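Fold sample X.
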Amino acid sequence: MPLTRTSGLSFEVDDSLRGVVTLGWLEADGVTATPLLADYLAERDAVLQAFQTRYAGRPAADIPGVSENRSMFHRLGIDPTKTRPSSEALLRRVLQGKGLPTILPAVDVCNLASLEHQLPLGLYDRATVKQAVFARLGRMGEGYEGIRKSVVNLSGRPLLADDEGAFGAPTSDSARTQVGESTTSLLTVVYCPNDRPGEHLSALLGRIADLLARYCTATVHLVRTVQ
């Protein structure tokens, strides 16, 4: 299993995930929690309106990207009707007229990008991620305290782990590495099904970099894909 060095963090993908998912990796510094301006709100609302106009009344499985994510989850042993990819959960919320949640600027812009491209992602305070990062399947009994949730069960499910244990998944992330108002550096990991063309992953990473730079004062210093 080849090891990829990434700005002080190492990243290893377990064989159990190879052939199923390609991971996108983005790191950024200089992030601020300054409230998002009217320009962003107008851009966001235009995207939400376009989704509601284009997809209202259509089954979620007919929307580009959803079926591929569900297939990826099935191949990883997850029932996507019980534990949905985070991107599909955002889509369902928007089509129900609830809009996107307002959390923190960096989280909000990444949620918008995930919605647009229908790829699940995790966003982390990079300063809390400890050295080596592993993408693998969860071990028996493995889990963590989730953001606004009790313990998230990760047994047999895809996850990210560092030297202190599991911290991320394509469904729900951990409280330990969550982004807060004092966060200044970010790690974003995107989960792209291998049967979806790679340009979708590249486009999402580019969109995240653009939104973070324009609206969160971020400097993106590393973008790559890892299979």
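Fold sample Y, listed below.
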Amino acid sequence: MRCPYCSSTDSQVKDSRPTEDDTAIRRRRVCNDCGGRFTTFERVQLRELTVLKKSGKRVPFDRDKLARSVQTALRKRDADPERVDRMISGIVRQLEARGEGDIPASEIGLLVMEGLKNIDEVAYVRFASVYKDFKNVDDFEGFLHEMETAEKQD
């Protein structure tokens, strides 16, 4: 594992333990060259997933990219990091369980929206504004009206 501080490949594991949801192993490491300490995570990957973009382009699925987009939606919001990580792990498990290697980006977006709706409504609207490509305030108003209508029906 390459040290994020000095790029040395000589690091040593000091502590290993499962994450709270038992979907990964958290490892605390120390670099033998610079003494820097850092954390790595080891996860099981059941299959190679490919994302089918709207443009028709196929790209490898990247869990970290998914996590970054969720974190962007949650920026400056008070969301429990463990809950967010469980949501992301759940999305990945759902995608892997589909049994198909190719997944449309739109399906991933829907899963993220569903997860964010249960964590933070502001983040849900932020993500939806990008995912649904809102062009103006009317798009926001329409979406918020749909949310309110759905909540009243629940």
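Sample Y note: Residues 1-44 form one domain.
Also: The chain has two domains: 1-44, 46-153.
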